[in-house]
Amino acid sequence: VQLQASGGGLVQPGGSLRLSCAASGNILGINSMGWYRQAPGKQRELVARLTTGGSTNYADSVTGRFTISRDNAKNTVYLQMNSLKPEDTAVYYCNAYVLTLNQDMGVSMWYDFWGQGTKVTVSS
């Protein structure tokens, strides 16, 4: 299973960006998909998460500015980021909790998968 993230870049304060992350490979099911971020010198933190059932949770710092959505048919999760602030600068990682076949064991198991990260820089 691979997660391919895209959409990062340089934006001015107050601007918007939309991140995308597509999951591909031997996917039997996805429970949840989400976005985390890691700023220089800081720990990785949850930004937003969305379950298959539609439940969402957001970091307090992005509530009201960021919106997570998902296209279940495409196994893709999006993060619409509005009113960006310099403190939103970080590498953003997508994450998915995926049911996939463990070929060695011959059974389906749930695993956490991570994308490669996409850098978001908010600066004037």
The structural class is: mainly beta
C-alpha Rg (nearest Å): 15 Å
Inertia-based shape: elongated
**Percentage of helical residues?**
under 10%
Which features does this protein show?
single chain; 124 residues; 4-stranded antiparallel beta sheet; 11 strands
Can you put this structure into words, describing what you see?
The chain is mostly beta strands and 124 residues long. It is 0% helix and 60% strand. It has strands at 2-6, 9-11, 17-24, 29-38, 45-51, 56-58, 66-71, 76-81, 90-102, 107-114, 118-122. Strands 2, 4, 5, 6, 9, 10 and 11 form a seven-stranded mixed sheet that branches.
What is the gist of this entry?
The protein is mainly β and 124 residues long. 0% of the residues lie in helices and 60% in strands.
Topology readout:
Elements: E1 2-6, E2 9-11, E3 17-24, E4 29-38, E5 45-51, E6 56-58, E7 66-71, E8 76-81, E9 90-102, E10 107-114, E11 118-122
Parallel strand pairs: 2-11
Antiparallel strand pairs: 1-3, 3-8, 4-5, 4-9, 5-6, 7-8, 9-10, 9-11
